[in-house]
Amino acid sequence: MYSNIETDAEYDLLNFIIKQYGEEDELKIELEQFFKYKSFNERFEKYTEVIDSKKDGDNTVNTDFLISSYKTQMASWEGAHMTPTTYIGDVTYLKAQEDGSDLLPAQDSNEFWQNCCIGDFTEIPIPGNHYNCVDDKEYASYVAKLLI
């Protein structure tokens, strides 16, 4: 039911860097060493140190907070990689017309969702991308009217 995001090459940072910059890219080599020789806690201590060095003012970042945020994000990714069982009913699929992010691979999930549902499947194009279709006032108003 769930795919393993650690082995899902589409979302693997090192593979992303290799695709963009090549196998011998210095950043890729440094990241491999960082992940190979640093423990989980050591990596998050380093992240905290780097973030704190970039901040202005008295606010600091707590390593425990970063770890907690990371675990929350990973749980979200796991949920996003769930393969749903068959849905019995009609589906109205609101498809954003703009790309939302260059980091994640573009996927046309229309066919995927059609295969998951037994019933009528209706696709409605909506303005914006995955994020601003509800953040942008004009786009959100359009989407809200469809939902009412």
Summed up, what is this model?
With 148 residues, the chain is mostly helical. It has seven helices and four strands, in the order H-H-H-H-E-E-H-E-E-H-H.
Which key terms come to mind for this protein?
mainly alpha; two-stranded parallel sheet; 7 helices; 148 residues
Describe the structure.
By secondary structure, the chain is mainly alpha-helical. The protein has two domains: 9-80, no CATH class; 87-147, no CATH class. 51% of the residues lie in helices and 11% in strands. The chain is built from seven helices and four strands. The chain has a two-stranded parallel sheet. The protein starts with 12 loop residues before the first helix and ends with a helix. The model is unreliable at 1-5 (pLDDT under 50).
Topology readout:
Elements: H1 13-21, H2 26-37, H3 40-54, H4 63-80, E1 87-88, E2 91-96, H5 110-116, E3 117-118, E4 121-126, H6 132-135, H7 137-147
Poorly predicted runs of 5 or more residues: 1-5
Helical fraction equals: 40-55%
* Element order: H for helix, E for strand: HHHHEEHEEHH
Number of domains: 2
What average pLDDT do the residues reach? 81
The percent range for strand residues is 5-15%
Radius of gyration: 20 Å
What is the number of strand segments? 4
Strand order of the largest sheet: 1-3
Give the N-terminus to C-terminus distance in angstroms.
33 Å
Structural class: mainly alpha
Main sheet: strands, sense, barrel: 2 strands, parallel
